[in-house]
Specification:
- The chain is an all-beta fold.
- It has one domain (10-341).
- Helix content is 0%, strand content 60%.
- It contains no helices and 25 strands.
- Strands 2, 4, 5, 6, 7, 8, 9, 10, 11, 12, 13, 14, 15 and 16 form a 14-stranded antiparallel beta sheet that branches. A nine-stranded antiparallel beta sheet has the order 20-19-18-17-25-24-23-22-21, with no helix packed on it.
- 40% of the residues are buried.
């Protein structure tokens, strides 16, 4: 089944604060206006999820940050991973009730900011979302012993995957998955500054706004890199979109999104996360070979989560409807298995 492509700006919610059925679908650009999500009916308080997640892979390190608000709590994280030594520098914060957090009403409409004990995060767009030229986003984060300042570039004409997923009459999610974004900047560890080198560093964005069910499980895989002179972005997902008529699957080749409308089959070993994974369907045959599992778990009663986010490399092929085959290998990224009660 081919889902509806959105080509014009649309509001995520109606003026009376209800989910807008005209927003259900997918787009190549972040066309959905989420500014009305703050006008949710009080009976839905506690179901609103808003977040910005950025990940930057460099030849020597992996950098990640999260700024989020889930109505009753603010949940943030900064993570720095040194690939040669596998040393982690990490800080997270769950702030009850939510405070010290700022999130823009829609993507690139303003700064995202988090302040909590042990961490500081700033995400600042440079240039308006509507600009035809390349746009940039500055990512800054600081924790004990580590800080980074990275600028991410969205090249002119670059396409992402934006999708509105309906869970029911009062539950939905808008997500923007933006892969294969060039990044450059600096990383400082224990007072020593090193480069986040341009040309070999890649950023991925997960931007989310929605009213979620309480108990959710998902798979997400992403990758960025260059293969045979072509810039490749891998974006695959599963489980949380099952039965909704929407998917978050696609391949970005030289900035152009090739949407995969089919649900994908995920095959992996939950007793050994570092064994190879397979993801297939809709013309895609992909393998993922992990080298590291970032495991995390939280149980605060009303809030609990469990994540295995495995980092490694993607390889595979995708065959288009007209028979063209796109092959890729050595595309670095991750695949994850997540269960959240929030």
């Amino acid at each position: 089944m081919t889902a509806r492509e959105l080509t014009d700006p649309v509001s995520l919610v109606t003026p009376d604060g209800r989910p807008n059925p005209d927003a259900v679908g997918w787009a190549r650009h972040p066309l959905v206006d989420t500014s009305g999500i703050g006008r949710r009916p009080r009976r839905r308080w506690g179901r609103t999820k808003r977040w910005e997640y950025w990940n930057v892979l460099t030849p020597t390190h992996i950098l990640a940050l999260t700024v989020s608000s889930i109505d009753y709590a603010a949940v943030h994280e900064v993570w720095v991973f040194e690939r040669a030594t596998r040393r982690e520098r990490h800080a997270n914060a769950t702030v009850l009730p939510a405070r010290g957090v700022q999130l823009p009403p829609r993507l690139d409409a303003g700064r995202a900011r988090a302040r909590a004990k042990g961490l500081e995060i700033d995400i600042e767009p440079i240039g308006a979302l509507q600009d035809a030229a390349a746009r940039r986003v500055r990512l800054r984060a600081a924790i004990a012993g580590a800080a980074f300042d990275v600028t991410v570039t969205r090249p002119a004409g670059h396409e992402c995957l934006a999708v509105v997923v309906p869970f029911g009459p009062t539950r939905f999610q808008y997500t923007v998955k933006d892969v294969a974004l060039p990044a450059a900047g600096t990383l400082t560890l224990d007072g020593v500054t090193c480069e986040v080198p341009a040309g070999s560093s890649w950023a991925v964005l997960d931007h989310g706004r929605g009213w979620w069910p309480y108990d959710v499980r998902w798979n997400w895989g992403a990758g960025s890199g260059v293969c045979d002179g072509r810039t490749i972005g891998v974006q695959v997902g599963g489980r949380w979109t099952d039965g909704t008529g929407q998917t978050e699957n696609g391949l970005v080749v030289d900035g152009r999104l090739h949407k995969i409308h089919d649900d994908l089959r995920w095959e992996y070993d939950r007793t050994d996360w570092l064994r190879p994974w397979r993801v297939s369907g809709g013309g895609l045959e992909a393998s993922f070979t992990p080298f590291y599992d970032k495991r995390s778990a939280t149980n605060l009663g009303v809030i609990s989560s469990r994540t295995d986010q495995c980092f490694g490399t993607w390889a595979g092929t995708w065959r288009t409807a007209d028979g063209e085959q796109i092959a890729f290998e050595g595309i670095e990224g991750w695949a994850e298995d997540v269960h959240n009660r929030w």
